[in-house]
Structures are given as C-alpha cells and as structure tokens.
Amino acid sequence: MSSRTKRFYFHGASAAFAAARAWRAGVAVFAMVSAFGCALLSTATPATAAELRVDITGLRSGDGKVHLAVFATPATFPHSDAILAEAIVRPKAAGVHWVFSGLKPGTYALAIYHDENENRKFDRGFLGIPLEGFGFSNDAPVFFGPPDFADAAVTVPGKGAHITIRMIY
Description:
Layout: H1 3-43, E1 50-57, E2 65-71, E3 85-89, E4 96-103, E5 106-115, E6 134-136, H2 149-152, E7 153-156, E8 161-166
Parallel strand pairs: 1-8
Antiparallel strand pairs: 1-4, 2-3, 2-5, 5-6, 5-7
C-alpha cells in the first residue's frame, strides 16, 4: 500500500471516528436534556381536574335528546359558538344524569334544552316563546331572555360539584 493510500485511509477513518464522536456527543446531550425534561415533568404539580355532575329533572317525555352546554365566562353565556363543554344525551322519562369531567376548578354556567323532535335546534314559537323544554344552572329565572351569568353561576371546586336543573316547559 502506498503512503498516499494509507493517508487516505487514515483521514477517512479519522473523519468517520470524528463523525461517530460527534454523533455520540449529540446523543449524550439529547439524553441529558430528555432526562432533565422528564425530571421536571415528574416533579411538576399535576393539573387539577374537577367533575361537574348534573341531574336534570322535570322532563315531560323520554323523546328526543337533551342538550347540555357549559359556559366559562359572562361574555360567552349562553352563545352556542362559545360552549366550553357540551353533551347530547338520550333522556329517560325520569330524567338525565351526566358528568362533565376534566374541568378546571372555577365558576361556570349551564344551559340545557330538550330537543324532543330531534331537529338539533331550540324551537320557538310566536314572539320567541320556547316550544321545547329548557333550563339553566341554579334554576336561574328567565324573563324575556336568558338569565345573567351571575344568576346561573355554579362554583366547581377541585373536589367537584353536583347540581340539579329542573326542565321548564
């Protein structure tokens, strides 16, 4: 073998070893960062998630579906494009029971309606008078429109809450 060939082999090997060392260093740095990140995650305080248990009473039938919607702020209550969480449940004549899981502890308001004809909208008659059952958390009173958020507000602590809403027809 000529010295030129040896040098090429040597330089090629050097380059390969250098690349391998760089790769190992990169892997080592990645491993250290990953381990540090895992350590941070394992020592982080877990996020508190609460449950809101909802019972709905006073249904006049087991027909159709009951729509439940959770709202988080007064500005969004009760606008259908600003629902925080929702459920659509097939009712029983005796009522509906639903659990909203994974809520952050806080203050919420709920709006419900009984879509008896399953047309996916809250039907109203002359002068906007409701033709289907409806209700709000705290059984908040209704006068010519939905109640204020404050009237329907329910506090959900970290341990969860249980409320009952009476359907109005």
